[in-house]
Amino acid sequence: MPPGHRTLIPALVALAQKRLLFFAGKGGVGKTTVAATVALTLARYGKKTLLIELDDSSRAARLLGVSTTDQQATGPQPVSPSLFVLSTSGQIALEEYLQLIIPFKPLSRAIVESRAYQYFVAAAPGLKELLTMGKVWYEERKREVEHPLWDIIVVDLPATGHSLQYLRMPRAAHETFGGIISREAERIAAVLHDPEKTAVNLVTTPDELPVSETREAYQQLIEDLRLPVGALFINRMHTAPLSAEILQATTIQGTLSAKEHQLIDLLLRCGHTEAMETDIQTVRLQPLQPLPLPVISIPFAVADASDGTIVEQLSLELTTAVQDKSPRNRKNDRKRPRAPQTSHAAPEE
Known about the structure:
It is a single chain. This protein is an alpha/beta fold and 349 residues long. 48% of the residues lie in helices and 17% in strands. The strands form 3 sheets. It has an 8-stranded mixed beta sheet, sandwiched between helices. It has a two-stranded antiparallel ribbon with strand order 1-12. A hairpin with a 2-residue loop joins β6 (143-144) and β7. α9 (160-176) packs across α10 (179-192).
């Protein structure tokens, strides 16, 4: 059940109408944390959600509290009744495919472990990327009775350069190969290019290199790949309630002990540093302002005890308070300011 008296921010409501949400970004910007946070939030608000991470690090699984033992299992692992996580890669997808066409496990295992197989997988250009996207497409096609098994699938792509290769491969394979490979690649590409089903979301932090790479990735997605783009998540955003000028002009007055004076002076210095960082990040993010994307901001946060705490904490940033409209509270409506219904900006990792 979702937390009481809160709802999704408008920008996330729009994304929740899709079937596939891809998350791309430069390494180190918190892309996996953002993807896990979005998956958790959508699951809490009624979407049966599958989070797919396209590597074997299982970081997303750990963020969501999946035990080390569970991570060794194949197939989607349950986090809650409405949230599952799956770690996959091109090699895993190919091995699953071999097991489907060669159900005799000793034989399929012998093929996978052979030197010729390893050489083929390493040498075949784009094979792992194509098979991985095929796995995503396969999960999207799964049905439970007459309905899709998953309401929404969140995909944590590798770092930006490699992630675009994953998104590019289905269309390239369709145009390059013939026969069954071309037909299957065309089906995958059709889903990826459908704006009603798919949205590629960009994740950055308010830092110079990630901002530059995000702008370049957007141009490639729109002009080269021609894929539907969803939202811009800006992670690790700093906020300051007071400006650097106000804090700089603040003086300590009154009779205080040396220890109290030292503590207040230290707090003012910390506040001033945070205010300056807030101003600097505004300048760094200016190159992204022309992008016609909704912006979802995620604040800088530190886990209290575990990564799971971070995901739980950040999930609240993707929701907004709902005003109580019960009769006993309506008479107080004029006294309380309405909560703004604007979406947050976006960053993390």
